[in-house]
Amino acid sequence: MTVKVVNKSGGALPAYATPLSAGMDVRACLDAPVMLKPLERAMIPTGLYLEIPAGYEVQVRPRSGLAAKKGITVLNAPGTIDADYRGEVKVILVNLSGEPFTVENGERIAQLVLARHECIEWKSVGELSASERGDGGFGSTGRK
Q1: Can you tell me the distance from the alpha carbon of 139 to that of 127, in angstroms, rounded to the nearest whole number?
Q2: Which domains does the chain have, with CATH numbers?
Q3: Sign (positive/negative) of CA torsion 134, 137, 142, 144?
Q4: CA 72, CA 103: separation in Å to the nearest integer?
Q5: Scanning 7, 40, 113, 128, which has the fewest C-beta atoms within 10 Å of its C-beta?
Q6: Strand ranges of the sheet holding 41-51, from the earlier edge strand across to the other edge
Q7: What digits encode the pLDDT tens for the residues 18-29?
Q8: Is the model's pTM score more than 0.85?
Q9: What is the Cα–Cα distance from 82 to 55, expressed in whole angstroms?
């Protein structure tokens, strides 16, 4: 799959770390470091502009290492970049730790995953077919 990209970051394009990686690390594109205090959030620019093919989205996901080691995650994970969006890709980072965290220029801050999607057409009906689960919601399937 080919995706057109304009890279104003001055750095390398996102790339897969291993041959079987689903996500590509994306880096911060900053003029100055950004400090996130505990529970603070910020939109971090990447310097990337994408032309995603119709029928696809790019999902913005947290990096597991930043989340596990530093408590830094993507606030609206997974974020969606729609095929018709042409603005700069920005990542909403949040600091869920008790310590300040400084985002540096060029730092790997999130992952990008290309995903196919379908558009649906709604069909209004009076009732839905029965299922084994029925209307059981959160926790209805048990703990084990």
Answers
A1: 24
A2: 4-116 (2.70.40.10)
A3: positive
A4: 10
A5: 128
A6: 4-7, 41-51, 88-95, 72-74
A7: 999 999 999 999
A8: yes
A9: 9
